[in-house]
Amino acid sequence: MQEAYKLSILYYLAFSLLLIVSAVMLFEHKIGFSYSAVLEYYVGNEERFIPAQSAGGILKIVLPHIFVFGLFAMVLLHFLVFTKLRGEKSLLLLIYAAFGVAMLEVFSPFLIINGFEFFAYIKLFSFFALLAIILYISWLLFKSISYE
Q1: What is the largest CA-CA distance in the chain?
Q2: How far apart are CA 130 and CA 144, in angstroms?
Q3: Of 33, 40, 42, 125, which has the highest C-beta tally within 10 A?
Q4: pLDDT digits (tens, 9 = 90+) for 40-75
Q5: pTM, rounded to two decimals
């Protein structure tokens, strides 16, 4: 692998790590990491004067995330395809998992506000699963540029 390509991947991984840290901080500050906090954020709580989210309000948040999650996953996975893992079936599973979990993370709020409160668990799971997948892909990339 060329040195410039390795350097590009290394910088992208550094920014990916910053993205993960900021995502965790924002999620904790804005929503919280418990089932009840997620429900309160989306469904609201009259006693605490927290308004319910509307479908339009969620759509305003979701629209840029659809593009960013897709682009971010595509770039990470694009780098991964050019490593030694290119022909492995586990790579295909990782690709499906990354995009599937990202879709769950983005669209679960719509189900929460439409009465499917169980999806608050799905929202929490998909958030952490997406971060775990990103960290795993980043680790694979870092390992691949370190050993070449």
Answers
A1: 59
A2: 21
A3: 42
A4: 999 988 888 888 899 999 999 999 999 999 999 999
A5: 0.89
